[in-house]
Amino acid sequence: MSVRDIVIFPDDRLRAPTKKVTEFDDQLKALVQDMFDSMYYYDGIGLAAPQIGVSKRLVVIDIPDSDEQGNVLEHHQKVLVNPEITFKEGLVDSSEGCLSVPETNETVQRAERIKFKYQDLEGNEHEEEADGLWAICVQHELDHLSGHLFIDYLGTFKRDRIKKRLVQFKKEHKIK
Ligand code: NI
After folding, report:
1. What is the pLDDT of residue 70?
2. Model confidence over 100-132: pLDDT tens digits?
3. In a 3-state reduction of DSSP, which class is residue 88?
4. CA 50 / ligand 1 centre spacing (Å)
5. Catalytically annotated residue among 106, 122, 129, 141
6. Is the full-model pTM beyond 0.85?
7. Strand ranges in the chain using DSSP code E only, listed in sequence order
8. Which residues sit with Cβ closer than 5 angstroms to ligand 1, an ion?
9. How far is the CA of 141 from the centre of ligand 1 (A)?
10. Is 141 annotated in the active site?
């Protein structure tokens, strides 16, 4: 169990092609545990492997039920191995942030409802439907596996401004 460093934009590792997971072994389980540890540590609800510098088709998500004070009542951990979206329907505005794009929140468009398939940690295949925040989160995280970030949906001007600001942010925080 360990918290890994999050790869911060701009960084080529966030754009690199990802490989299919083929070994469903203890090493994969340990990697997934590190991803959950890192996601909770940095207060995220989803994390894709490229965000810790691992170019594999692997995503973890946890959108917990919380009370009005923000205390977690129940976790809903989800591990998506080799996930793929098979169906999209409708459009919604989605206000998003990303652990790899700190201090940035922007509204982008997402499909309202999706179907997606994935494998679990044992390699078993599943197909599910999602809407609301789950649908948005799955789309956001799967984008990471294709080297895409939510800020790619913004205009060039806005994206360049975010990039400049984060280059500065990385210098100030001595992030490589
Ligand atoms: Ni993200």
Report:
1. 84
2. 999 999 999 999 999 999 999 999 999 999 999
3. strand
4. 10
5. 141
6. yes
7. 46-48, 58-62, 65-66, 72-74, 77-98, 101-119, 125-131
8. 98
9. 6
10. yes
